[in-house]
Design goal:
The chain is an alpha/beta fold. It has a single domain, classed as Glycosidases (TIM Barrel). It has helices at residues 18-24, 31-36, 60-72, 93-99, 141-155, 175-182, 185-201, 228-235, 259-273, 317-333, 364-373, and strands at 5-10, 77-85, 88-90, 109-114, 119-120, 133-135, 163-164, 167-172, 208-212, 239-241, 256-258, 281-282, 284-286, 311-313, 340-344. The strands form three sheets. Strands 1, 2, 3, 4, 7, 8, 9, 10, 12, 13 and 15 form an eleven-stranded mixed sheet that branches. Helix 3 (60-72) crosses helix 4, helix 5 (141-155) runs parallel beside helix 7 (185-201) and helix 10 packs parallel to helix 11. The longest helix has 17 residues, at 185-201. It is globular.
């Protein structure tokens, strides 16, 4: 049997960025929301405290600590949430200055997921205010050309870039927003064809284009695609995955829904999707969910929609390990899924889903990954 590939999403808003500093002040990072969080209901396990401190992921030495921990615990790749808008990149220094320049970057792979959703003002969100769109997710075709040149020249050429059958892995978060950028599905497919031609001209054997498919709206303004199978076929995607369980399984009980209840339903999602799209499907395992740190802490915590929404309870390291055991069993029974899974997330601290060690559990979640997928 081929070895498993464990790819963990990585959210890079934990270093200073010029846009964030212009809005929030010098040195601001999302760690500020982690620090300000507090319990919002009885037995609510907030705030969370990172065991390594409030690290700067754009520092290669501090990123090296993350790389070593990941590689030592059977995490094969980081998939960086990657942002590029019509006016340029955003929070890119975590991957460019941190990972790509880390002295031990060769210990694992990295890929990119273009998080092409609207960036909205939810840091923190107010209960009774519709969040402002700060950077629209749609881009012009000219911007997409700039993006594809940048990807090929800067990222895909890095020796640690994740490839599948020699082809660089590039994932796209919002299919609906992507097609809006080009005015339709056929025009988007032609843009992908040009992207592939550029890659081959640069000496690559092709691209591995991955689609994130989901059915439950989460962020304000997100739009779920009603018939993703047709889009994925027309655009020629090479695989499909999920970002987080919450995109596929609603949380019916507020303020807490049991982790194992969602785990059970997530297993059904894997089974439905295994052959649904006609291309390999990479199942997702989610470590937890609690977006309350992104709520203004002075507002009432009511069930009004993201981030004022239900959390997952009882997501212990033992429960997470059980989810990993289940996904391994699923992959062993479905070789068409290429023995590949995604994990949410390495560091979504303000959404309560992180493998990085905290002061409560230490390295227990990473040890669970190693126990199931270590070689």
């Amino acid at each position: 049997m081929a070895p498993f590939t464990v790819a963990s999403y990585y959210f890079p808003n934990y270093h200073p960025d010029r846009r964030n500093e212009a809005k929030f002040g010098p040195g601001w990072t999302e760690w500020e929301l982690v620090k300000q969080s507090r319990p919002r209901f009885y037995n609510h396990p907030q705030p969370k405290t990172p065991l390594w401190g409030y690290t700067d992921e754009s520092d290669p030495a501090q990123m090296a600590q993350k790389i070593d921990a990941a590689a030592d615990h059977a995490v094969d790749a980081f998939i960086f949430d990657w942002y590029y808008y019509d006016d340029g990149p955003f929070i890119e220094r975590g991957v460019e200055q941190g990972f790509m320049k880390a002295p031990n970057a060769g210990r694992m792979k990295f890929g990119l997921m273009w998080a092409n959703h609207d960036w909205i003002d939810i840091h923190p969100a107010r209960l009774d205010q519709k969040p402002e769109v700060l950077y629209p997710g749609t881009v012009t075709p000219d911007t997409f050309d700039i993006i594809t040149d940048l990807l090929i020249e800067k990222y895909f050429s890095h020796p640690s870039y994740w490839r599948i059958d020699g082809c660089p892995y590039f994932s796209i978060y919002e299919l609906h927003t992507l097609t809006k950028s080009f005015g339709g599905v056929e025009a988007t497919a032609r843009a992908f064809d040009r992207f592939r031609e550029k890659a081959r001209a640069a000496g690559l054997p092709g691209l591995h284009l991955n689609a994130v498919a989901w059915g439950v709206q989460l962020l304000p303004g997100e739009t779920a695609v009603k018939e993703p199978e047709a889009l994925i076929d027309t655009m020629g995607f090479d695989s499909v995955t999920s970002y987080v369980w919450i995109h596929d399984v609603p949380l019916p009980f507020f303020p807490q829904t049991r982790y194992r209840d969602v785990m059970d339903k997530a297993g059904g999602v894997w089974l439905r999707n295994a052959d649904r799209y006609g291309v390999p499907y990479f199942p997702n395992v989610t470590m937890g969910w609690d977006a309350s740190p992104r709520c203004h802490q002075d507002d009432f915590f009511e069930n009004r929609g993201y981030p004022f929404m239900a959390t997952l309870s009882e997501n212990t390291p033992e429960a997470f390990r059980e989810a990993l055991e289940r996904v391994r069993t699923f992959l062993e029974a479905h070789p068409q899924c290429l023995n590949t899974l995604t994990i949410n997330c390495w560091n979504e601290w303000t959404e309560g889903s992180y493998l990085e060690p905290d002061t409560e559990h230490g390295m227990a979640y990473l040890e669970a990954v190693k126990a199931i997928f270590g070689r």
